[in-house]
Design a protein that fits this description.
Layout: H1 2-16, H2 26-36, H3 63-76, H4 81-86, E1 89-93, H5 95-107, H6 114-117, E2 121-125, H7 130-142, H8 153-159, H9 171-190
Parallel strand pairs: 1-2
Helix pairs in contact: 1-2, 3-5, 7-9
């Protein structure tokens, strides 16, 4: 872990140091840093038997996708909407899945019947998306106040003209802010 940490910091410094394009042997340095990085050896994929439903070709990463997923499950079981909505469906997923399910239920709170309102869905959160959870934790711990704390993430967010809401994090934007802030701190320390 320590070797990977050092290699990551080295890679950030070599990549973002001002004037790095004028270094002698720059290509050799980049090659040496790449050699320091650990390589993943992912396991080969295995086809799983996903009973009772099988695999769905539905993007469930949005509110609309979650709704399509529940509809596809109901259709695959050949149950009527009344039968399907009369049973409790436990939906276990990562934070994003649970958040999208709650948001879809909230948007449909005034719909006609329990099938449309998604009353039958009970979401159960599982901590699978570790990177998303870590990003939320870092933002909560190190956001700071833009005026009082010029070194906090809030100040960096303002300097970079990022306009997203910190209470409704977008994973990619928050990760980008954290990465840019880390690079700035590393360069500041080196200088």
């Amino acid at each position: 872990m320590m070797a990977l940490f050092e290699a990551t910091i080295t890679q950030l410094l070599v990549s973002y140091m001002p004037g790095n394009d004028k270094w002698e042997d720059c290509k050799d340095i980049v090659t040496a840093v790449k050699a320091m990085m650990r390589q993943d050896r992912p396991l080969p994929p295995e086809k799983t038997d996903a009973r009772p439903f099988g695999v769905f070709d539905v993007d469930e990463g949005t509110k609309k996708g979650i709704i399509k997923m529940f509809k596809a499950m109901q259709e695959r079981l050949t149950m009527s909407e009344e039968q399907w909505a009369s049973k409790t469906c436990i939906n276990e997923g990562d934070w994003l899945t649970s958040n999208n399910t709650r948001a879809a239920k909230c948007d449909r709170a005034n719909d006609i019947d329990s099938m449309e309102r998604l009353d039958y869905v009970a979401e159960l959160s599982a901590p699978w998306h570790f990177a998303l959870n870590a990003t939320h934790l870092i933002m909560q711990s190190h956001l700071g106040n833009m005026i009082i704390d010029p070194t906090g993430l809030a100040a960096h967010k303002g300097m970079l003209h990022h306009i997203w809401d910190v209470n409704k994090l977008n994973y990619a934007e928050a990760k980008s802010l954290i990465r840019h802030s880390l690079i700035a701190w590393l360069l500041h320390c080196i200088m």
